[in-house]
Amino acid sequence: MEFNVIKGMSSTREIYVTDNDIASKLGSGNIDVFATPAMAALMENTAKSCVDLHLPCGYTTVGIEINIKHIKASTVGMKIRCEACLIEVDRKRLVFSVEAWDEKGKIGEGTHTRYIVNSEEFMEKIQR
């Protein structure tokens, strides 16, 4: 099956850091700053939303690899902007460049790999 995803597609998401996004709440640290797992989830979600509308009905993507650096801390209330750009398409394998910034500058960067799957077939396979 052919998929209507092409190299260069991009998407942007913005959030505000809340108490639910901090390291002390998520268990990844003891300080009340934007947690690395929260940044990773934002990066994955931004990459997913980049291609969602371009897939046929019944198809989605699943994340299989993330390689990121969290390079600067952000506090509760700060606006975080994340960008994902599709940099490689190999049949069903999609590789994204992901970056995130807060109001003071870049806070994270890396790559994220996702695979296109048929949702129903995927769930049937893992339930066997």
From TrEMBL:
- Give the Pfam families listed for this entry: FlK
Q: Where does CoA bind?
A: 63
- Where substrate is bound, by residue? 63, 114
CDD domains attached to this UniProt entry: PaaI_thioesterase
* Fluoroacetyl-CoA-specific thioesterase-like domain span: 17-120
Catalytic site positions: 36, 44, 70
- In Swiss-Prot or TrEMBL terms, this protein is called Thioesterase family protein
